[in-house]
Specification:
The chain has 122 residues and is mainly alpha-helical. Helices cover 50% and strands 8% of the residues. A three-stranded parallel β-sheet has the order 1-2-3. The N and C termini lie far apart (42 Å).
Length: 122
């Protein structure tokens, strides 16, 4: 039996914070672009921003993915041709994103800063 393709949605902070509760697609892949993390880490209060922004998607952790930058994808495509899904949504990026989402819901700000020191430099 062929597998059913899941929908994919790219999320921004506004959607995660204000509109996600109305999102009805229970099986969709939720893509957090690199630029969303840049936006979330622009102040010293980034652990709180993570906590608040990721609160609604944390229960769907296995559906969350992180994408490479648009510039990175375009550069690859120009140099090598089409970019595959596994290249757009690398496993190591997704693993890091899922760790940050999970930690944001249970760790203190100090623990987040200690465990994810590069987050302040996205």
């Amino acid at each position: 039996m062929p597998s059913v393709a899941r929908s994919r949605f790219v999320l921004d902070q506004n959607f995660m914070r204000e509109r996600f509760d109305d999102f009805r697609d229970e099986t969709a892949e939720l893509i957090v672009p690199d630029v969303a993390l840049v936006e979330m880490t622009k102040t010293e209060r980034w652990p709180l921003t993570f906590r608040e922004s990721f609160a609604r998607i944390a229960s769907r952790l296995d559906q969350c993915y992180m994408s490479i930058s648009i510039q990175g994808a375009l550069t690859y495509e120009v140099q090598h041709g089409p970019v595959s899904t596994s290249q757009l949504l690398p496993a190591d990026f997704t693993h890091l994103l899922r760790e940050m989402i999970a930690a944001s819901q249970v760790d203190t700000d100090d623990e987040m800063i200690r465990d994810f020191p590069l987050a302040a430099h996205f």
